[in-house]
């Protein structure tokens, strides 16, 4: 294409401006690094050994200037211990608590120290409670979203609190004079007089207080502990001050460890009790004036949605790299849809030379990033991982350009197809599908489904056929596809009872699935149809093998596709490329890859090879999923029990996964475009030809951007 002279000068000038801007940003980043290494003083995390590892923690408290701890024995009896800063005391039998031994010690925080100096047990009816100095009991009533105040067994007041609570969330706490509760909005702490129960003051935290612990300190100070860190507020204050960031501590390790107890010591030290994949951990947080105020290196990670594989890798990485602070942020919470504006804003930021050190590229235009020089070459990391047994096809084919690798997928989804021979063959090409639809006017190809499910699944199935070399879509072929979609939907009378689904975004954007041709795979009357489904891990294959077994159908891959997930790349503008490369390798460690996750199958050959043996273990055989469904044809309920496939079937699946060599990837923005136009088509607002034209026009515009 011939360039316009004036336009070229403008582009050149803009390039120079961007270059100067990037240089300025780099200089600022280096200055920030210098300040980081020079400043001193911060809270550090230290582990305290538990007094008796064979018993189950039941309570954490501060009593008489010492850390107190209550454990439950195998017999359901309570024993208390105190810690003097160096060692634990001998266990003491808690006579009053042991009048009613626990039937089942479940490890929950069920013992606390009241302000009157006595130990109390929390019951299942009131998972959170407090006792004032005068013996007044504050009981949380979850059903009524309030704190009920009882004095001498008589309710004297009620205090409103948040409507939705989690098991490990403090809703009410108290000092000698004041009651503190989580406000109804879930983002504030509200203070009440401990004698009159009158409202005194509200402090907004400007963050969700879900899964937080609230404890009093000295002189009207209060502390909130959550995933973001430890925060300080005053009873008459207006803002919250972050005392310690949660990143690079157990507090921030929400994927594998959970805060079960939190107390404040006399010298502004803090104690947190955690449980999770590492068992029980007791951590102390003390201020060290000689410690660097900030870690030597701050590594930032960004993704559109939270990723458990990344969170687990962060937990493993920080144990071996205490001098590296990791900040992990994401655009929206899990099962929320990222806006196109957010993606466009991120694209602009990255192209300007800014952004996080490590990028999770799921839902993003990583192929464009490769072309624009946004991503760092990670070929060296990729070669090391391949030698360690990471699937070579996934490493080499996901994000390669000119012989260099720019991103690596730590998880994959596996699209599968099964059904009767004729129906499966019909899905091999667009021509074959069109011929089948015209020939079988009275037959449902996909069983119980909806318009968007047929449309989106087939759009993805034939996406490579629709694409031109420059990424644009062939409008003529798209018209042909949409005509076939409409015909298939009408075949068998689907339009008589199904409409366009209001749940479309949930399926395609929130669940991030490309292939899902049927709403039900297990219904007895839907076994004769073809099924296309995108499996998201080993736990997701049970219903598929149950369904395919009923019709003796073999399970095959869809065009040898794998869908890359947890696609990790490094920002070419990062100042910490060496550390970033080391972190990426942690995503592929065996202990991370072994964790079952609906984020996808492992890409480790070693872990894959363990699956056939697992299904033969007693644990694997006992892991049965029960499902009750409603047959949409017969309107009758049915029940199925599904276990893992046999060892032989699992071996075949593992072999299939190892041979997948074709990455399927589509940006979220394109998915949204197609969904919007499919709805217009179904509702009769535009013709097939108009729909195809609009989709092509929107894709072309996006590519131009």
Q: What's this entry about, in short?
A:
The protein has 705 residues and is of the alpha+beta class.
For the structure shown, list the relevant keywords:
globular, 35 strands, Methylamine Dehydrogenase, Chain H, disordered N terminus, alpha+beta, 4-stranded antiparallel β-sheet, 9-stranded mixed β-sheet, 20 helices, 705 residues
Describe the fold and architecture.
The two termini are 17 Å apart. The protein is of the alpha+beta class and 705 residues long. The strands form 9 sheets. Strands 23, 24, 25, 28, 29, 30, 31, 32 and 35 form a 9-stranded mixed β-sheet that branches. A 4-stranded antiparallel β-sheet has the order 1-22-21-20. The protein has 3 domains: 48-116, no CATH class; 122-291, Methylamine Dehydrogenase, Chain H, CATH 2.130.10; 413-564 and 595-704, no CATH class. Helix 9 packs antiparallel against helix 11 (475-490) and helix 12 (504-510) runs antiparallel to helix 19 (668-682). The protein contains 20 helices and 35 strands. Mean pLDDT is 86; it is low at 1-22.
List the helices and strands and how they pair.
Layout: H1 5-38, E1 40-48, E2 56-63, E3 66-72, E4 78-83, E5 92-93, E6 111-113, E7 119-121, E8 129-131, E9 137-141, E10 146-151, E11 154-160, E12 172-174, E13 178-182, E14 188-193, E15 199-204, E16 213-216, E17 221-226, E18 229-234, E19 241-245, E20 257-264, E21 270-276, E22 279-292, E23 297-305, H2 308-320, E24 324-332, H3 340-351, E25 358-360, H4 366-372, H5 379-387, H6 392-397, E26 400-401, E27 404-405, E28 408-418, H7 421-426, H8 430-439, H9 451-461, H10 463-466, H11 475-490, H12 504-510, E29 531-535, H13 542-550, E30 556-557, E31 561-570, H14 577-586, H15 590-593, E32 601-602, H16 605-614, H17 618-622, E33 625-630, E34 637-642, H18 647-659, E35 662-663, H19 668-682, H20 688-704
Parallel strand pairs: 23-24, 23-25, 31-35
Antiparallel strand pairs: 1-22, 2-3, 3-4, 4-5, 6-7, 8-9, 9-10, 10-11, 12-13, 13-14, 14-15, 16-17, 17-18, 18-19, 20-21, 21-22, 25-31, 26-27, 28-29, 28-30, 28-31, 28-32, 33-34
């Amino acid at each position: 294409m011939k360039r316009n002279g004036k336009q070229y000068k403008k582009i050149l000038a803009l390039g120079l401006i961007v270059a100067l801007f990037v240089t300025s940003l780099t200089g600022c980043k280096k200055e920030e690094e210098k300040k980081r290494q020079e400043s001193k003083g911060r809270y550090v995390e230290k582990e305290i050994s538990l007094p008796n590892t064979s018993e189950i923690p039941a309570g954490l408290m501060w009593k008489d200037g010492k850390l107190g701890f209550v454990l439950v024995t195998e017999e359901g009896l309570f024993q208390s211990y105190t810690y003097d800063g160096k060692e634990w005391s001998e266990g003491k039998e808690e006579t009053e608590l042991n009048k009613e031994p626990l039937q089942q010690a479940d490890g929950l925080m069920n013992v606390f120290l009241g302000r009157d100096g006595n130990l109390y047990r929390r019951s299942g009816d009131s998972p959170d409670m407090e006792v004032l100095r005068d013996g007044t009991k504050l009981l949380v009533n979850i059903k009524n979203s309030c704190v009920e105040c009882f004095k001498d067994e008589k309710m004297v007041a009620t205090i409103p609190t948040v409507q939705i609570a989690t098991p490990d969330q403090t809703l009410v706490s108290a000092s000698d004079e004041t009651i503190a509760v989580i406000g109804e909005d879930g983002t504030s702490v509200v203070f009440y007089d401990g004698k009159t129960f009158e409202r005194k003051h509200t402090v907004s935290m400007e963050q969700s207080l879900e899964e937080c612990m609230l404890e009093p300190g000295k002189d009207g100070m209060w502390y909130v502990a959550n995933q973001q860190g430890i925060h300080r507020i005053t009873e008459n204050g207006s803002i919250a001050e972050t005392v310690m960031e949660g990143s690079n501590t157990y507090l921030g390790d929400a994927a594998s460890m959970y805060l079960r107890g939190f107390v404040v010591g006399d010298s502004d030290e803090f104690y947190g009790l955690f449980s999770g994949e590492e068992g029980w951990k007791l951590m102390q947080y003390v201020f060290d004036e000689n410690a660097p105020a900030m870690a030597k290196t701050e590594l930032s990670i960004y993704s559109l949605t939270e990723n458990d594989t990344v969170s687990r890798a962060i937990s493993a990485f920080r144990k071996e790299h205490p001098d590296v602070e990791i900040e992990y942020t994401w655009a929206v919470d899990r099962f929320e849809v990222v806006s196109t504006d957010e993606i466009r804003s991120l694209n602009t930021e990255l192209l300007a030379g800014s952004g996080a050190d490590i990028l999770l590229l799921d839902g993003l235009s990583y192929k464009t990033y490769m072309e624009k020089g946004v991503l760092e070459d990670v070929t060296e990391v990729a070669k090391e991982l391949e030698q360690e047994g990471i699937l070579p096809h996934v490493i080499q084919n996901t994000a390669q350009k000119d012989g260099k690798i720019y991103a690596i997928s730590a998880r994959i989804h596996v699209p599968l197809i099964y059904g009767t021979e004729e129906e499966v063959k019909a899905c091999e090409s667009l021509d074959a599908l069109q011929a089948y639809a015209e020939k079988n006017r009275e037959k449902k190809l996909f069983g119980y489904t909806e318009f968007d499910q047929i449309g989106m699944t087939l759009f993805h199935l034939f996406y490579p056929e629709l694409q031109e070399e420059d990424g644009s879509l062939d409008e003529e072929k798209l018209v042909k596809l949409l005509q076939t979609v409409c015909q298939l939907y009408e075949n068998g009378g689907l339009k008589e009872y199904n409409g366009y689904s209001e749940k479309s975004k949930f399926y395609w954007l929130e669940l991030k699935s490309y292939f899902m041709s049927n709403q039900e795979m297990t219904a007895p009357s839907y076994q004769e149809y073809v099924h296309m489904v995108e499996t998201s891990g080993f736990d997701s294959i049970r219903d598929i093998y149950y369904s395919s077994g009923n019709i003796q159908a073999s399970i095959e891959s869809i065009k040898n596709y794998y869908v890359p997930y947890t696609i990790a790349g490094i920002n070419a503008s990062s100042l910490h490329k060496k550390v970033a490369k080391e972190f990426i390798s942690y995503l592929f460690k065996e202990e991370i890859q072994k964790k079952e996750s609906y984020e996808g199958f492992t890409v480790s050959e070693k872990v894959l090879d363990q699956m056939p043996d697992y299904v033969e273990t007693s644990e694997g055989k006992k892991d049965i999923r029960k499902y009750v469904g409603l047959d949409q044809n017969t309107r009758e309920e049915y029940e199925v029990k599904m276990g893992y496939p046999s060892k032989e079937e699992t071996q075949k699946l593992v072999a299939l996964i190892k041979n997948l060599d074709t990455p399927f990837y589509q940006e979220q923005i394109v998915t949204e475009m197609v969904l919007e136009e499919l709805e217009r088509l179904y509702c009769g607002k535009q013709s097939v030809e108009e729909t195809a034209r609009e989709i092509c026009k929107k894709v072309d515009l996006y590519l131009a951007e």
